[in-house]
Amino acid sequence: MPLRRILPALAVLATLSLPGLTQAQQAPQAQKPAEARIGLELNRLEPRPEGCRVWILLRNPGEEALDPLRLDLLVFGKEGVIARRMALDVGPLPAQKTMARIFDLAGQPCEGVGALLLNDLLACGPTPEGRAACLPRLALASRVDGVTFEK
């Protein structure tokens, strides 16, 4: 066969995608495992003579402990006005662990609490970058009727 006929045929073959060949040539792409969700749940409001006791459950299904773990929380009244701001140190939260944390709202009756807002993370892990990485991983929920817990 003349060379002028072979060269176009080789060019066509070179551009064809052969399934077995292309899969073998492509390096498998490593997929980054999905980050485990960090759960924060407003579990209970307990009326007490001195104020409202707040129970929060924290869940860390991940492989690394969260230490430190500090929250910037806003407490809203039923009318939607901010009643209080507080910084809570709820860590350390070990890997693959669920823990309860309790704090008191002195002088605040439970029936006056309308919502909790996670305003910010003050710390999440040992590095400043950990704070930014934790925020999107947080999953907030509330079991208390009529009281939301959001970020």
Helix content: 10-25%
- Radius of gyration (CA) equals 27 Å
Mean model confidence by pLDDT: 85
Order of helices and strands: HHEEEEEEHEE
Q: Indicate the CATH architecture.
A: Sandwich
The unreliable regions are: 10-28
Number of helices: 3
- Tally of DSSP β-strands: 8
- The dominant shape is elongated
Structural class: alpha/beta
What topology, given as strand order, has the largest sheet? 5-2-1-7
Q: Please indicate the count of domains.
A: 1
Main beta sheet, described? 4 strands, mixed
Proportion of β residues?
over 45%
Task: Outline the structure in words.
This protein has helices at 3-15, 19-25, 128-134; strands spanning 38-48, 51-60, 69-77, 82-89, 97-106, 113-124, 138-142, 148-150. The protein is of the alpha/beta class. It has a single domain (38-150), classed as Sandwich (Immunoglobulin-like), CATH 2.60.40. The strands form two sheets. Strands 5-2-1-7 form a four-stranded mixed beta sheet, with no helix packed on it. A four-stranded mixed beta sheet has the order 4-3-6-8. The protein is elongated.
Structural descriptors:
alpha/beta; 3 helices; 4-stranded mixed sheet; 8 strands; 151 residues; 18% helix; Immunoglobulin-like
